[in-house]
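Can't paste images in this forum, so I'm doing it all in text. The chain is below; anyone willing to post the predicted structure tokens underneath?
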Amino acid sequence: MGQMVQDARDALSGLASCPDVDPDRIFVVGYGMGGMTTSFLMALDERPAGAAIIAGFTPFRSDTDARGTGGVRRWSHLYGWLPRLGGFVGREAEIPIDFDQVLAAAVPRPLLVIAPTRDWHATHADVVTAVYTAQKVYSRRDGAGKLTIHSPDHWLEYTRSMQAQTVDWLRSQAAPSNKQ
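Text version of the structure:
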């Protein structure tokens, strides 16, 4: 995961160096594993103006083996993306950071979270709770209304309607900057 986030940061650097690109208007979109990468990127890098995260996460602390999602074990043992999470299998409540905090670290930049209700990789109710918890931080830190969640009644897929929703949201957010 760290390498994927670094790759995204390098892509931002390359894009920002293009003469036809306004570096203050770069938005990031991630689906699935790319959504998780985008979540961490937004927490760790101030350069993106905002992001859309589609089917990108389920909170770690509630992602136990019993939930049927694969649990945090999948991130450490199956995929190897977050190997240190392996030490928390069976002790998920002790994981020191979770997605409510990761999302809140992006405040006040706008975020769109699209969380399909029938995504078997995520526990939808827990995703909604994480977003609502992060929205409280957004409200306290000059970001009220800038963290949005949509929950289409779909399986884990990036449908044409979700794509259109993402594009419409990006258009609504990416107003020209006031830089001279």
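The first helix runs from residue 2 to 16. The beta strands are 27-31, 50-54, 111-114, 147-150.
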